[in-house]
Write a structure and sequence with these properties.
Elements (H helix, E strand, L loop, with lengths): L2 H10 L7 H12 L21 H11 L6 H12 L3 H6 L5 E5 L2 E4 L6 E5 L5 E6 L1 H7 L6 H9 L3 E3 L4 E5 L8 H19 L3
Parallel strand pairs: 1-3
Antiparallel strand pairs: 1-2, 3-4, 4-6, 5-6
Helix pairs in contact: 1-2, 7-8
Length: 196
């Protein structure tokens, strides 16, 4: 069962109105993500920047009329904090590690590549795992992945020893850009490294 489905089932067990406490607990339990580490990234919600993440969610929930489903909770968390739990859920078994919001979001022993976002998700670096390097004998990202990443705006940064992208607007990179990055990596894994 995917993590998003587990979250849906878990939230359905709450009979009373759901608060940030239940959402935080569910995300920590299922995804192992500490939302207290995630700053509010939605510029339209800057008025809430003086609030903690929990207070911001509670403020939203008080105004919300409907039932808070797992899908709605994930949508709110993505909009407020840039934590895309649906996308994270879809990465299960993809052999791709993800570091974001100052913590490992997805990480397994036999992952092949790492997507590492910096503070506020303004920049992203992609690099191979030690497992990948040991299994392939390569010393860097494979050429086909380098080309894919370069085509969407990444470049090799010697100081970071990785392929790197920094959003020129100074804002968090979009979900669409993250999707292109992950899509490029998953395509290369399927095409060339599914056997590892």
């Amino acid at each position: 069962m995917k993590k998003a489905e587990m979250m849906d089932q878990h939230l359905e067990t709450y009979e009373e109105k759901i608060s940030s406490t239940e959402i935080w607990h569910t995300v920590d339990l299922i995804y192992k993500i500490n939302l207290d580490e995630a700053p509010i990234v939605n510029k339209e919600m800057e008025g809430m920047s003086s609030l903690s993440g929990r207070e911001a969610i509670d403020s939203f929930l008080q105004q919300y009329e409907g039932t808070i489903t797992g899908a709605k909770a994930r949508s709110i968390l993505n909009e407020m904090f840039g934590v895309n739990l649906d996308a994270i859920s879809s990465l299960e078994g993809a052999r791709l590690a993800l570091y974001s919001k100052g913590q490992w979001i997805v990480q397994h022993e036999k992952d092949l590549f790492v997507v590492h976002t910096g503070a506020g998700d303004i920049d992203v670096k992609v690099y191979p795992t030690n497992y990948f390097l040991e299994q392939t004998g390569l010393k860097q990202l494979p050429t086909n992945l380098q080309q894919e990443l370069a085509s969407i705006g990444y470049y090799f940064d010697d100081t970071k020893d990785s392929y790197y992208y920094s959003n020129p607007t100074g804002e968090a990179v979009s979900d669409a850009f993250k999707g292109k990055t992950i899509g490029a990596i998953l395509g290369v894994i399927q095409q060339s490294f599914a056997h590892l």
